[in-house]
Amino acid sequence: MTLVQTESRPADADPAHRTAVEVMDAAGPQVCDDMSVEVALAVMAAARTVRLVVCDQDAQCTGLVTHAELAAVRDSSDYTDRVRLRDILGDHGSFPSPVTTMAEAEHAMRTRRLGVLPVVDEQGSALGVLALSR
Predict the structure, then answer these.
(1) Cα dihedral value 86, 53, 95, 9, nearest 10
(2) What is 92-134 written as a DSSP string?
(3) Could you give phi then psi for residue 19, rounded to 5 degrees?
């Protein structure tokens, strides 16, 4: 697995020393953590995306959910329409900043077994996402 790179780069650039801001994708749709799973799935379908950045009432990034995660929750026997995104967010730990090197970000993602991770600014607002490719 290697990190997805969305920008062209000089052949001599060392990918490990590039920063998150240089290779991150756009954050895409951001939703509030009090949104229900069903509504989040509808937002994903309308936006034609497979992930949503989740924020709290103060617009601070609290995590990210994928279509696969939401579908698994919806299909579980414990699911009710009262389940909110904040109820299913795992502990992703800290998020990389725009100046985090790709080597650091990739190590964190592999250690935490995350395929995608938001990049946040100093105030905790999502700026973009980093994704591991297979």
Answers:
(1) 170
(2) --S---TT-BHHHHHHHHHHTT-SEEEEE-TTS-EEEEEEEE-
(3) -100, 165
Average pLDDT over residues 99-123: 89
Q: How, if at all, do strands 30-32 and 51-55 pair?
A: parallel
pLDDT of residue 115: 85
- Three-state DSSP at 72 gives helix
CA 114, 94, 76, 35 torsion: positive or negative? negative
Residue whose token pair is 């950045």:
53
pLDDT value, residue 33:
95
Phi, psi dihedrals of residue 116, rounded to the nearest 5°:
-150, 145
pLDDT tier, 61 (very low <50, low <70, confident <90, very high otherwise): very high
The DSSP element (H or E) to which 88 belongs, if any, is helix 85-88
